[in-house]
Design a protein that fits this description.
200 residues; alpha+beta; four-stranded antiparallel sheet; 11 strands
Amino acid sequence: MGGTAMERQRLTTAMGILLALSVGLNIAQGNRVDGLKSERVRLMGNLEAAYEACDTLRDARGRAMADCRRQAARAEELEGLYADARRRISEMGIRAKYAQSIGTMATETVVLTDTVYVGHGGGMKVIAYQDAWTQIRCEVGDSTGIVAYSGRDTISQVVYRVPKRWWFFRWGTKAIRQRVRCSNPHTAIVYNEYIEISKR
């Protein structure tokens, strides 16, 4: 009878150990599945962001704005997929492992006006234009010419969350987007990119 009780005790202990191992393996497997799901969501978001054109907008005062979706990159992906971003981070004197995000924007400034100043100064013809953001001066002689251009702009950036929506209800996060705006009305935004870098 004592042997039977001891065998029952061993069997109960073994079953407890097997149950604990089974629960541990299930938790680990569940965490792995959750990790794979979040990785799938990240990669799908990056793919959508890569194929989605940036929205070019104007604010109430006619200033150029651009709105683009965030791309989420892991630090190790900077070497391969985002090599250009990695190079720009290095050129700015920042170690890649400390970078949080990187944004890139390209602008084009076009000044079209009907009113210019034309005068003569020392045998040269002078053409000049100036407003709050732009200053252009051309001096043209018989065989030489000088062109001076100066442009000013202030670029504002906002990174914001777009919630999921159904009817009147909003919850969670559908996407992270970046909106940039130029203060110079002559400026058009021709390219906009925002990459957020995660350490894991």
